[in-house]
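Let us work through a complete example step by step.
Step 1: write down the sequence.
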Amino acid sequence: EHGNFQGRSYECMSDCADMSSYLSRCHSCRVESGCFMVYDRPNYMGNQYFMRRGEYSDYMSMMGWSGGIRSCRMIPMYRGSYRMRIYERENFGGQMYELMDDCDSIMDRYRMSDCMSCHVMDGHWLMYEQPHYRGRMMYMRPGEYRSFREMGYGGTRFMSMRRIMDMC
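Step 2: predict the structure and record it as tokens.
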């Protein structure tokens, strides 16, 4: 519940949409195996942060969150190919580029200033709001994402993408 692994604890081995039924707050975390996305709101909403194996005794100040972890999603191990199409506009409109590897800047690589929708065909990806894998992030698993704005990311421009590989 508290920083530095103090207070009550809860062991989570799969997705958890609302941690409030187990802990009143979550301000430190230890990932013993695998990778997780943690969220500052219930139901996998709000700001997201990627966590791999390790100890996070005071991640609150690192991320600038005040409310702690409210939900988490386990990222499954994946060893296949990676493929994602990014689109300049919502509903798969405008310029389209297909990625099969990491892209540290869509502006530098494609001269693309905005990415507002995507289709993840293969693999699991992290999208970042700034080039070089910085800023707010969003976890993308296989599926169609027609509008980042409708997903609650209005005003956020995703400028770099990275595959989640064997780093878990």
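Step 3: interpret the result. The longest strand covers residues 35-41.
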